UniProtKB/TrEMBL annotation:
InterPro entries linked to this entry: P-loop_NTPase
Name of this protein: AAA family ATPase
Pfam families associated with the record: AAA_33 (PF13671)
Gene3D superfamilies: P-loop containing nucleotide triphosphate hydrolases
SUPFAM superfamilies, per the entry: P-loop containing nucleoside triphosphate hydrolases (SSF52540)
Originating species: Pelomonas candidula
Superkingdom of origin: Bacteria
């Protein structure tokens, strides 16, 4: 049986992690999250410099785990965001090279609603999510590239 690597595209607050946890339970897959590792290293309020310093090493470590997991025929849910087309193209190719099938999901959630959810999440203590301030959120929103029609993304209702 060929494993599937589920790729989640969307802003913070759009519901990626909630969806990933539910999907992992439904398909008996493994949920891998960049944010979980950043939280363990730096706590809920890392600086941009801290996040940037570990982004590539964390992604490479999670890719190593992904390749090992899909080799067993088990699905993986990558909760990364995949904001740019070039990143999505690169990851789909990497998934295929690992012998798995990529499946891309995008979330039907406006930036304003995502920001409201992030504010609610930020107000909770203790938190199991990264704190995202308003300036960073809107910076992220300006960098996200929507899926193109040829990307065959599955729309997840907001």
């Amino acid at each position: 049986m060929t494993a599937t690597v589920h790729l989640l595209h969307g802003l913070p607050g759009c519901g990626k992690t909630h969806f990933a946890r539910r999907l992992a339970a439904e398909c008996r897959g493994v949920h891998l999250s960049h944010d979980e590792w950043v939280l363990r290293l730096f706590g809920p309020r890392p600086t941009g410099t801290q996040i940037e310093s570990v982004r590539e090493p964390i992604h490479e470590m999670l890719w190593t785990c992904t390749a090992r997991i899909v080799a067993t025929g088990t699905d993986v849910i990558l909760d990364f965001g995949f904001w740019t087309r070039s990143d999505r193209d690169r990851v789909r190719e990497r998934v295929r090279q690992a012998g798995a099938l990529p499946r891309l999901y995008t979330f039907d959630c406006s930036a304003q609603l995502a920001w409201e959810r992030v504010q609610t999440r930020n107000s909770r203590e203790p938190t199991d999510s990264l704190h995202v301030d308003e300036q960073a959120f809107w910076l992220f929103a300006g960098h996200i590239e929507p899926l193109m029609p040829d990307e065959d993304g599955i729309l997840v209702p907001g």
